[in-house]
Description:
The complex is a heterodimer of chains A (434) and B (429). Chain A is of the alpha+beta class and 434 residues long. Chain A is built from twelve helices and 16 strands.
Amino acid sequence: xxxxxxxxxxxxxxxxxxxxxxxxxxxxxxxxxxxxxxxxxxxxxxxxxxxxxxxxxxxxxxxxxxxxxxxxxxxxxxxxxxxxxxxxxxxxxxxxxxxxxxxxxxxxxxxxxxxxxxxxxxxxxxxxxxxxxxxxxxxxxxxxxxxxxxxxxxxxxxxxxxxxxxxxxxxxxxxxxxxxxxxxxxxxxxxxxxxxxxxxxxxxxxxxxxxxxxxxxxxxxxxxxxxxxxxxxxxxxxxxxxxxxxxxxxxxxxxxxxxxxxxxxxxxxxxxxxxxxxxxxxxxxxxxxxxxxxxxxxxxxxxxxxxxxxxxxxxxxxxxxxxxxxxxxxxxxxxxxxxxxxxxxxxxxxxxxxxxxxxxxxxxxxxxxxxxxxxxxxxxxxxxxxxxxxxxxxxxxxxxxxxxxxxxxxxxxxxxxxxxxxxxxxxxxxxxxx
Amino acid sequence: xxxxxxxxxxxxxxxxxxxxxxxxxxxxxxxxxxxxxxxxxxxxxxxxxxxxxxxxxxxxxxxxxxxxxxxxxxxxxxxxxxxxxxxxxxxxxxxxxxxxxxxxxxxxxxxxxxxxxxxxxxxxxxxxxxxxxxxxxxxxxxxxxxxxxxxxxxxxxxxxxxxxxxxxxxxxxxxxxxxxxxxxxxxxxxxxxxxxxxxxxxxxxxxxxxxxxxxxxxxxxxxxxxxxxxxxxxxxxxxxxxxxxxxxxxxxxxxxxxxxxxxxxxxxxxxxxxxxxxxxxxxxxxxxxxxxxxxxxxxxxxxxxxxxxxxxxxxxxxxxxxxxxxxxxxxxxxxxxxxxxxxxxxxxxxxxxxxxxxxxxxxxxxxxxxxxxxxxxxxxxxxxxxxxxxxxxxxxxxxxxxxxxxxxxxxxxxxxxxxxxxxxxxxxx
Lengths: 434, 429
């Protein structure tokens, strides 16, 4: 058993509403910039919530080798975000993968991949244009659809929307042939994917892995589904920069977003041997499940707290030693209260002292793209700065929490990031300075 | 490292929904494939599928459905399969540390709410339009769409419902690696038990893609058989006249436990999970690597993990989809791994009888391996009438066979190049 194998972070790739590239994201985050705005991708006028964290424009062909440009035609937005984040991560880690050279510096079979994904929405314009051919009034006539309608769709149509295609494109572009997985647990996907990739390296099945997740809900179906389950803020369409207010007494719902956050994890000796820049060591991972109901986290915080506690126990970290915690912090009042209960169970009285960085106020909820939150925790530890809590002015009356409206510079040794999903999956990761 | 055993089995399949009844039908070479009834597929290129039949009643397995109102088709299958496995394993929530009971599924997304979806889209698409009127769409969609039915399309919903059913609060994950998903889920669940992060794991998967856009997607890829005149003969793995797979639906669940936990509670041990291998082709999103390298390494990794040689494997449950590409490549890969032994080891594909359950396929196929070991019986590959020179191994054609099976291998390969192999073995102290 290779339980002694240590795992470190040697590359970070981020595509977020605050920018393309980990550096841009980080600088804007620390600067307190808010990227939640009125939706530009489509006219959101008919929706109760009309705001989102949208990724700035990019051209996907700029992020793949020339020979792969044709394949970008079958990439849903979610896949593009993963591919762009992967390019950023590989370049940051200074790894010469197949994307950049004919002589890759890392054996393909020892490189794993685990990219969390969401429920990818089919592009409505493309599908409806095809359906229009087979319409009978406002209904789709399935006989006509079978005869003439479906033929309007490109033969590879289905492949744009399979969640495992994020990982598949990334493994093909960079030629990664080790264990590959796709976790689909909504907002918890990225953290679970990173945790699972960590285990894969620990047990010796791979020496490196690219892991995290990507998703875009910035499309009509993605937004509608969040409106239907009443998780999004519908009161702040005129003041989007103030809309998401994690742990604030004025919390009135979260907002949708899009992005991708990927880490390159590497076995410690392998990283040292190639002289890699080491951001942090991944020292703890915990996962658990709520059994309260489908849509709401348990108000006791039992399982959320137990995921964080498991990760801290594995990391041998005491609550007082935690220098920064990037929570899920959705800005939904009842959810925030449940999250605080869980944090209280994990951290005890130290909860009031641990600096919290609820970054969704600035970027929205990236769902399966919450790998951005995990990557932010690593950057925070590495650069010795705690991101601001820009909209958490009036702290909730239940607890006094350690949040500041502006970034804080402080050197510390341990960062935690934790999430929970609609559906009750919980995950936490603990990073330590090497 | 803890040993991991299987103590409970459950499935909901196109051929029935009890372990022994379906097993008997598989050994008889029967079929669960027929004309599609879930929607009007009469003018689709493929008009048949392997549906769960209308005699499946979730209430028969889960009398209390209060926490599961409005669940989608895949969740309905997952709950029934899980209840069977849980009961079969003799588990009692009151006697378990539920923080150490986890779930790892490879479930697919839920079926689209087709009428609401197509209705809202068409109502907001004017004659001659080139794009959706999103303002109008938002108003119509909000009226047409049901929050629960939309939520039930999230791929983590079967997982979340199984947690409510069983009370499991341990590690909980869903992976969706296309047709390899539930094999991967059971493999990863095994790893969670091996490293001591749980005592019990529910592993498996559920999926239904038998809906208009699911069939559309596979028909456009020309992946489905179009033998509309004879559905029962349509799924023909390894046959020279194979022409694509047959879409099925369903769920398979197993209860996995550390050996120590199973023994302490005096559980009936059905099999031991001894090996798991997982790789990526990194070849193309549309095709498998024709050299079969990803599949070869997955099988080799599983053998190494199990500490077994090729000669120790007595049965291979093939991915065997009945597509021209898969069956040829899988044969190439098996030959590369098994060498001289390739022609001696019996291989079969139950997809010939129950179709391809996509994300759930691996779980029902692993259950088949456990039953093959239990009864020393091999299910056949039906419709294997015309030998293909490219597929020249022993596929147990058309008739079940009695044979000593102490260890069996189950292969699953997914679109995009995901390869997963699990090996189960007769349990011996």
